[in-house]
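#struct-pred
JK: can someone run the complex with zinc ion? inputs below
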Amino acid sequence: MRYLVISDIHANFPALQAVLQDSEGTWDRIICLGDVVGYGPFPNECVTTLAELPVTAVPGNHDWACIGRLDLNYFNEHARAALVWTREQLDSDSMEFLSSLKPVVREDNLTLFHGALTGPITDYILDSRDAEENFSLLQTPVGLFGHSHLRFYFSRGMNGQVVSHSLSQRNSLDLVHRKNLLNPGSTGQPRGGDPRAAYGLLDTEKGLWLLQRVEYDIPGVQQVMEEYSLPEYLIRRLAEGR
Ligand code: ZN
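RT: done, structure tokens with the ligand placed:
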């Protein structure tokens, strides 16, 4: 099966559209790793578009805040202000879609979650030590996660040794002898210095993991955020990729 793997769209519809266009014809099914909304100005557009595609999705912390399952005090002031705005915008179909998502999903030898298996909504996997803890909970050859908006590729072999792989565009995964934890980066609010929308393409038959980037209209999104008076810090960081 060929999957388009996206995460942390954060209501950035032009970024989602760019990813869908750029990847057209290269996948059979979509995996969305949470935070469809929050930060950005197009929450309903993102949810509606995803809901109409062949997608398996899990919820993120921002999604849960919008449906009342996570306290707004968990977030910093910028994120919180955007969440208060987002809650007012979300229509009943979007709320229903977000409410229907389960925090951990197993499908086709893949385990999907937003943050980490130790705490699917709010925990992070940021280094080998985090990965090690999560490998002990992972029961499939591949675990897919988001949340940090950063790309990661960890693997653990039969000997228990965890490897943090340096990232290349094209990665061959050993799905037989190793377990793998993969983060595709963020589609709608990329961090790590590159502002282009990030996504992954996973081919489970060939054991291939491709990391992609595509440009989208950042000033256009920033302008809409200005119009809705979303926090200046969030507007600026889109162009910086931080
Ligand atoms: Zn996020």
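RT: quick notes.
Residues 8, 10, 35, 60, 62, 147, 149 surround zinc ion (CB under 6 Å).
Residues 77-89 form the longest helix (13 residues).
JK: thanks, will look after standup
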